[in-house]
Amino acid sequence: MDNTNISEVLGVLREEIKKFSVPIVSEVAADRDPYKVLISCVLSLRTKDEVTKKASLKLFERADTANKMINLNESEIEKLIYPVGFYKTKAKRIIEMSHKILDEYGGKVPDTIDELLKLKGVGRKTANIVITLGYSKQGVCVDTHVHRISNRWGYVKTKNPIQTEFALREKLPQEHWIEYNDILVTYGQNVCVPISPKCSICTIEKYCPKISVLKHR
C-alpha cells in the first residue's frame, strides 16, 4: 500500500467504521474541550475504552476544568477513576498537570506538542491527540493499533510508534492526519486485530499484503 491508494483505502474505512463505537477519547472530544481531551487520554492509557468512559464521566461530573480539579484530593480522584490502570499514579498526575496548567499556562491547556510534553505523564501520543481533537490542529497520533496496521499494510516500515509517527508525517497526505488515528484505532479494535485479524470480512483486504500476519480468520 502506498500513496496511490491510501486515500481510497481510508475512504472505504471511513464508512466502514460507522458500524462500530468510536474510541472514548474521540467521544469526549465532541465538544472540543482540550482539558477534557487531555484528562480522558491520560485515563485511557493501559485501560479498556469501556472502563475509561465510565471513569471519565464520573470524574467530569465532579470536575471538568483545572480549577475544579485542584479542589479534589488524590484520594477522591482515585475513587472516581477506579478501576483504570495505574489509577493511583494517574490521580497524582492529573492534580499535578492541573496545577501546572493553572500556574504556568494561565489555565489554558498548551496547544503545541513541545509544551504539552512538559506536562508530566504526557507523551507524544497524548500530545498529538490534544492538538488534533482538542484544538483541531494538524498532528499524527500513533498508538499500538496505528503502528501495527500501518506496518501490516506495508505503508511504513518502523519498529515503534514514535518512528511510525515521524514516518507518517513524512509520507501520509496531511489531509488525512487528524482522521488517521480514529479510523485505524476503530478498525484495529474490531477487524484488524493484533492476533488472527478478521481478513475474511475486511473491506480492504485486496490492498493489504498482510505483513507479519501468521494466521487470520
Write the topology of this structure.
Layout: H1 6-16, H2 24-28, H3 34-44, H4 49-62, H5 66-69, H6 74-81, H7 87-105, H8 113-116, H9 124-134, H10 144-152, H11 161-171, H12 177-190
Helix pairs in contact: 1-12, 3-4, 3-9, 6-7, 10-12
Compose a concise summary of this entry.
The chain has 217 residues and is mostly helical.
How many runs of DSSP E, i.e. beta strands? Answer: 0
CATH topology of the largest domain: Endonuclease III, domain 1
Q: Could you tell me the strand content as a percent range? A: under 5%
What is the C-level CATH assignment of the largest domain? Mainly Alpha
**Gross CATH architecture of the largest domain:** Orthogonal Bundle
Spatial extent as radius of gyration? 18 Å
The SSE order reads HHHHHHHHHHHH
Give the count of helical stretches: 12
| Envelope shape | globular
- How many angstroms separate the termini? 21 Å
Q: Could you give a short account of the major beta sheet? A: none
CATH superfamily of the largest domain: Hypothetical protein, domain 2
* Average pLDDT figure: 95
Q: What helical percentage do the residues reach?
A: 55-70%
Number of domains: 2
